[in-house]
Amino acid sequence: MSLTRQILLAMTAAILLGSLTQRLLLIPDLLSNPVWQEYLHYILDDLLAHGLFLLGGKIFIASLKVLVVPLVFVSLVCGVCHLRDQGSLGRLSLKTIVLYLATTGLAISLALLLATWWEPGSGVDKTTDGNYVPPQPMALIDVLANIFPSNPVQAMAEGRMLQVIVFALLIGIAIGRAGEYGERIGSHFNDWNEVLMKLVTLLMSFAPYGVFCLLFTLFAEQGIGKVGDLALYMLTVTTVLLLHGFIIYPLLLKSLSGLSPRIFLRKMRDVQLFAFSTASSTATVPVTLRAVEQRLGVKNRVAAFSVPLGATINMDGTAIMQGVATAFIAQAYGIDLSLSQYLLVVLTAMLASIGTAGVPGVGLVTLALVLEQVQLPVEGIALIIGVDRILDMMRTAVNVTGDAMVSVVVARSEGAIDQDIYNNPKAGEQK
Ligand code: ASP
Question: Deepest of 136, 141, 143, 274, by most Cβ within 10 A of its Cβ?
């Protein structure tokens, strides 16, 4: 059975069994004998959901995360130091960043359009339990200032991806210019890159177990969340995510690169499943990088830059949630937004997307920034928090798909893609 099928199977089993466990735990007198009842609780909750499977899930996430900083650093230094024409770095970065911003702008416009049409927030009950403390929106200037590292070790220790990227770029450029010294170091980086990629492949084979553990615990805790009034909100977000992921991306890919979207989507399945289960673009970086290089044939010099950068600044799925959520909150509070306010939402959501770290739930924190710009009540976030985790999983899958799509398009325009690998269905496939 292919790895994708194994992960899918594990995912389905975990969602079903986890949700069933949640239901069972809610029934106070499922077993007539209180001792047996207590025993059942102990097994389902303490031993499985919050014991064995919680531990398995934590180990799985940790083993992905532990690779992110070393892999991004090594692979980017490697890509940059072997660039024959370092001047192309500027062009490559510009293309990547422009495409990231453009796709995010498109995503949020689509979200606003559908949310103003379907009006998921009108007539929604605004009362919440009052326990929610809205996040402090960060200053826009800090979002930008945070890109530049003052201490590379601290940046790596804290996993500050943009700072690691900037540092790796600088080191890579310097190695490329340091003649024979640079060549020696450069070849070591090459070796390290190969070794780390092998480790990614190795870890991926444990994914079905990791995914099962993660999702079992999650669904045993919360089921699919308190849907209630939020069904239309969820439907709107999901529809735009699907539209963007399965129609807009393929159209863009075909028109900008001429490459087959079918092959692209097929080869992205594993990555999407990882993103869905972990709800973290950053933890998925090793898997995305491997797929973009080894399955889609993008050369390391493009992939090593665009994938980690995308995982940090390109969040189309998050922008979609933020667009729908902003319209939803405005509708729930009966506030009309003007056209210029909508434009402001598009702009700030694009910036918020840069400031959103690729970890679970941060999209809701940066949503505060967007709401604040158009003077909407930040407490409104409490209305949608109950169903955010499941939407987070879906939007993260879209986020990583966008990163890979842009990487392929940029690579094609730079002549940095091996089309034989791209077109070969078996290339880089893992059993
Ligand atoms: N979980 C998302 C990601 O990692 C970010 C978010 O929307 O909260 O891409």
Answer: 274
Q: Is the CB of 288 under 6 A from ligand 1?
A: no
- pTM for this one? 0.90
CA atoms within 13 Å, Cβ hemisphere of 287 = 33
CB of 385 within 6 A of ligand 1: the answer is: no
Residue identified by tokens 């849907």 is: 227
Atom of ligand 1 nearest to the CA of 359: 4
- For residue 192, the 8-state DSSP code is H
Ligand 1 mean position, distance from CA 418 (Å): 30
CA of 32 to the centre of ligand 1 (A): 44
Counting other chains too, the contacts that 244-252 makes at CB distance below 8 Å and 24 or more residues apart are: 244/106, 244/107, 244/110, 244/316, 244/317, 244/320, 244/398, 245/317, 245/397, 245/398, 245/401, 248/103, 248/106, 248/107, 248/110, 249/103, 249/401, 249/402, 249/405, 252/103, 252/405, 252/409
